[in-house]
Amino acid sequence: MKAPLSWIKEYVDVPADVTTEELTRRLTLTGLKLEGIDSPGAQITGPLVIGRVLTLEPEPQKNGKTINWCTVDVGDANGTGEPQGIVCGAHNFEVGDLVVVVLPGGVLPGGFEISARKTYGHVSAGMICSARELGLGEDHDGIIVLPADAGVPGEDVRAVLGLDEEIIEFEINPDRAYALSLRGIAREVLVSVEGASGFRDPALRDTPPADDAGYPVVLEDQAGCPVFVARTVSGVDPSATTPDFIVQRITAAGMRPISLAVDVTNYVMLETGRPIHGYDLDKLQGAIVVRRAREGERLTTLDGAERVLDAEDLVVTDDSGIIGLGGVMGGETTEMSETTSRILVESAHWDPVAMFRTGKRHKITSEAGKRNERGVDPTICAAAADRVVELLTTYGGATADPGVTEVGTAPAPAPIEVAADRAARVAGIDIPEDRVVATLEAVGCTVSGVGTGTLEVLPPPWRPDLTDPQDTTEEVIRLVGYDTIPAVLPTAPAGRGLTRDQQLRRRVGRTAAAAGYVEVVTFPFVGESDLDALGLPGDDPRRTTLRLSNPLSSEAPSMTTTLLPGLLRAAARNVGHGTDSVALFEIATVTIPGSGEPAPILPVDRRPTEEEFAAVTGALPDQPLRLAVVATGEAEATGWWGTGRGVAWSDAIDVVQRVADALGLRLMTSAVAQAPWHPGRCAALELDGQVVGHAGELHPRVCDAFGLPPRSVAAEIDLDALLGAAVHLRPAPSFSGYPVAKEDVALVVTSDVPAAAVEQALREGAGDLLESVRLFDVYTGDQVAAGHKSLAYALRFRAPDRTLVEGEAAQARDAAVARAAEVTGAAQR
Amino acid sequence: MSGPNTDYDPVEVTPLQAAEVERMRDEAIAAIEAAADLEQFKQARLDHAGDRSPLALANREIGALPPQARKEAGRRVGQARGAVNKALAARQAVLEVEHEERMLATETVDVTLPVDRRRTGSRHPITLQSELIADIFVAMGWEIAEGPVVEAEWLNFDALNLGPDHPARTMQDTFWTEPAENHVVLRTQTSPVQARAMLTRRPPIYVACPGRVFRTDEYDATHSPMFHQVEGLVVDEGITMAHLKGSLDHLAARLFGDGIDTRFRPSYFPFTEPSAEVDVRCFVCRGEDSDACRTCKGEGWIEWGGCGVVNPRVLIACGVDPEVYSGFAFGMGIDRSFMFRHSLGDLRPLFEGDARFSSAFGTEI
């Protein structure tokens, strides 16, 4: 809401020593936040003065134009007192007129610097200005001719033109609809600024009494439209222009001047907060009836849009049918035009909820709708209509018709019972009861019950937002001042600290970072093209996503089921930046669509039952926490120390195993073909027999699709499963002090036998003396048969309580090898 | 040295003559001391202290002497050999030190060579910022509550006094999921965790909830469809706005430095009343000489978040008796806090996944 300061001061007196900064600072502290202060003349610098045209000589030019060579009295403003010679192209003035002159050295909006320059054979020392050149509107029909009493030549003209006006822009909270008017802002100044006084309510005026002679109006839906005031005027002069002060003020408020009749209704809306609609009375047919629309009815609104109406929409009708969407936007058929001479002024109160729904349904945002849906004073319909009539008769040559229509009754505010000390208890400061009462009365409430402990507060009609004890409490505290509230730390009971999951998540992040991976955060939005790029088969469950109704991009309309698309894209961007070796990780939830049951909208006047709450939370999709990693380039850098090591499928498994290890877990691996991985280089990661993730080298086509270098690797794992299984209290280890016995074995198996199976068999066969098994070489080549590989293991044996006797370790080794031979067909080399 | 011995047995063996022994000794010592390296030292030891060295040979002769001469000869040769061994040990020590120094000198490397063979990982600054904030609350005895990002409409709006026709619902541009009649949204705020906390815990409740939220904002320097908030909720007996101010001042001081406090401005949120916008004192200029301050743009204060006293309507919807309990709630931008704490003017680097950005912050902030 933008409000010219002079307009505010029309309704409230502010002490002279209160600067605009102080005024806005106070208003900000009580809830009308300053957005900015502007001035229409802010971009004009240098001498801008009143001039009197002394001579004017039309000089036709070769190009067909006629320019005027003028001399203008600018008093002493030019330093010489001599008349100023100025060339002017406009023709709407005469010798003797007072005009606006910018002298050399002045700067006009847009950085337009004025200097004496030679043109059309003269030295033109300055410019006679039009409204547009001064940034005062679009009027470029000619230069500004000032009224004869505007001042004397040489005087600064800014005040005369309103260029020195300060326009204050406030941010208005949605509960403060009354502040969307000068009336409301002035009232806030009254209660917020020390020394402000003399509030003059622009909506307080004597209005002619309602009678039966007015235009017939029938309210069929009193709930939707409780009050409808109609006034009519005749003989509006279609050529009448809007007076300058109205143009300046509505322009300052951010509205565009259109015509006298429209400008006047907007002016009164800004003044009182009450939206007004004007109809061309000659286009109305029969009585106005306000009712709900019938499903499917149509209306072409002022903006030219044809709208299909809903049975909830409130409509204004006459004998011709629907002529307007009540309170939101008028219809085309009864719109006022340049030839309108008879006007019906509608000043009606509308149900805010209906306004909100209709505006939302038809996607109409308007200044009128904004006020009607937030709540307008329902008692000022007659006053606002009367004010419009006054302005139309004063400036439009109109005559007020005798009839006054006033149908319906304004809804009365309900009293609020509130404990007298509630504000003090909520604020945590001492607020005496008389202060509470005085504050509430200052904002317009009527207070009774003083001294009883419970106040009965009747809110004023312009504050429909005051309905509950907390509302009056807020009024008191904000005006007593939030800055008076001290800082007191509440004492929480002894807390339990971070939950175990919260601690473990941090541990996972630290472990991944320690393994050389950099954490990133990406958006969780995904699209078909991403899932295609991953090479997911048509029936892959990851293709079943939760779709958004209003995604930011149609390319990514769903919540992702896998962290990989975002992560792979991020990796590719890093490569694109020239970072050749990249290792990233992300920890985030993914969204797995669930049952598809709706999440019920529960009542809010009581606690939901356990079943109700379970129905709400149970309808939500599964949102498991995942860890994903991607790496490309070198795992260890090439340098002066020698050649580095490129990332390999094993690195992707390694980082996940490190994370599992940090949680006290060990994941089992087995070969699996799973997109987006290389079908021969992907491991399923199992925890207690459940697959909890996958890791390995990415499929070459996936690397290609995401713009990643070949042989990039990735992993994704279900962290919830890992965190749930994490070992909590690890038993302290004990180590045998007896000597170790080392035995190496090389086993030949067919190529398809997984090393994990061989190791498993060795462990089973070796018995309790086995301390560790480590695969230290894998060999294929001339020394083993084709289709076979040799696996070399280092076995370590030790007893906890004694030194092994001669041959004992060898015996255990032989048992291990025998078991491996039995299970995997291994032969010792 | 003793002088010539007149008691000598006339049958003297040449090598055992005192002068001869002294000569052998002196030669040995000279040779040992002349050894320039361990190689030459070894040779000198062999030559002068080995089995076939002159002194060793002389020693063998002692047995052939008449008994009365043996003692004297043995002493003489023994002393000479002792002197030689001493010289050997001294010289060896010197040569070994020299040798070690020479060897180590040849192993000198250029210690200014780069050593970064292994990748360095890091965590995301928003994760770190969230943890830092969580730790501040945990230190006060609060707990960290959580909730899902894909949230029920009822919890995101209705339970928080944002009914279906509440004008404030249009203030938040919500991502809705399909089908709309399922009433599931991407949470627009961390506030639904307030409702969850009240529905799953009993007062006294002291919880903070850092988390991800979504709004349909186009992505630019100051807006993102996804960002991070930290919600705070306290429900207890006798809770006041002063407690709210105290908690936020404490958070401000811990995050931005001692003496940094907050300022409340009246505002409107459906779930709190009274409601306030929270400004935090600019930690760069501290509100003094703020005209020149680029961080707060001359305001002395930086917009930080929203807060207020929990609206009794919210307490009722979540089953807390407003006659017994009162509470406060607040929501601060984590990204925003990070941005001015670390002088970041554009929030997009937080979500672009550029490893260089995360790496700049390491694993703690």
CATH homology group of the largest domain in chain A: Bira Bifunctional Protein, Domain 2
Give a short account of the largest sheet of chain A: 7 strands, mixed
Return the domain count of chain A.
6
Strand content of chain A: 25-35%
Please give the number of β-strands of chain B. Answer: 9
Computed structural class of chain A:
alpha+beta
What is the CATH topology classification name of the largest domain in chain B? BirA Bifunctional Protein, domain 2
Number of domains of chain B: 2
What separation lies between the terminal Cα atoms of chain B?
79 Å
Shape of chain A: elongated
Mean pLDDT of chain A: 94
Structural class of chain B: alpha+beta
Give the uncertain stretches of chain A in residue-range form: none
Mean pLDDT of chain B: 90
Count of DSSP strands of chain A: 43
CATH architecture of the largest domain in chain A: 2-Layer Sandwich
Rounded to an integer in angstroms, the radius of gyration calculated over CA atoms of chain B is 45 Å
Protein model, in words:
The complex is a heterodimer of chains A (829) and B (365). Chain A is of the alpha+beta class and 829 residues long. Chain A folds into six domains: 2-39 and 166-192, 2-Layer Sandwich (Phenylalanyl-tRNA Synthetase, Chain B, domain 1); 48-161, Nucleic acid-binding proteins (OB fold (Dihydrolipoamide Acetyltransferase, E2P), Beta Barrel); 217-408, Phenylalanyl-tRNA Synthetase, Chain B, domain 3; 416-484, 2-Layer Sandwich (Phenylalanyl-tRNA Synthetase, Chain B, domain 1); 500-593 and 622-725, BirA Bifunctional Protein, domain 2, CATH 3.30.930.10; 741-828, Alpha-Beta Plaits. In chain A, 26% of the residues lie in helices and 26% in strands. Chain A has a seven-stranded mixed sheet with strand order 28-32-33-39-38-37-36, with helices on both faces. The longest helix of chain A is centred in the C-terminal third of the chain and has 17 residues, at 808-824. The relative contact order of chain A is 0.06. The model of chain A has no long low-confidence stretch (mean pLDDT 94). Chain B has 365 residues and is an alpha+beta fold. Chain B folds into two domains: 14-106; 125-359, Bira Bifunctional Protein, Domain 2 (BirA Bifunctional Protein, domain 2, 2-Layer Sandwich). Helix content of chain B is 38%, strand content 18%. Chain B has eleven helices and nine strands. A seven-stranded mixed sheet of chain B has the order 1-4-5-9-8-7-6, sandwiched between helices. Chain B has a two-stranded antiparallel sheet with strand order 2-3. In chain B, β6 (262-269) and β7 (272-281) form a beta hairpin. The longest helix of chain B is centred in the first third of the chain and has 40 residues, at 67-106. Chain B starts with 17 loop residues before the first helix and ends in a 6-residue tail after the last helix. Classes of the chains: A alpha+beta (829), B alpha+beta (365). At the A-B interface, α2, α7, α10, α12 and α13 of A face α5, β1, β2, α6 and β5 of B.
